[in-house]
Amino acid sequence: xxxxxxxxxxxxxxxxxxxxxxxxxxxxxxxxxxxxxxxxxxxxxxxxxxxxxxxxxxxxxxxxxxxxxxxxxxxxxxxxxxxxxxxxxxxxxxxxxxxxxxxxxxxxxxxxxxxxxxxxxxxxxxxxxxxxxxxxxxxxxxxxxxxxxxxxxxxxxxxxxxxxxxxxxxxxxxxxxxxxxxxxxxxxxxxxxxxxxxxxxxxxx
Length: 205
Description:
This protein is mostly helical.
């Protein structure tokens, strides 16, 4: 059974960047629904015994078009939100340190340049979607964006996501209305870089 991540912080802990109602709605309603629907569809498709990442990597193995589309959308929603909520935190922000900081500097020139590039991807995503920081097999970092609930796995990209930036309107509209740019700018004040660094370390094991 696929389970939602248990939030490692209270629903009001990310204020003022993200208000309590946004977290309660986003996590408690949207993410909960993606998770429940993914479980239901995975059971119908006979893949419920497989890790979510494996399901998303092998969507073509599901013959039924409706099931495959449902697994892509809801499996993506399940995985993407688990990652998103896991890399946020109170008393966070700042900049990464150690190996992750070195890799960001190596890939993008500086931390500020990284923020500019991933912000541009997030703001340039027309409609709903995500911006990603991912790890290539050689340990280098790469940025990408996806529409809807796609992610590097469902698109067959050879990279492991370690940071997810959600730009669906439900992620920010209650707080920021239609000003996505303000949300994206504030997002970096609640990124838990220790959690992202842990994801990096696990990706390169």
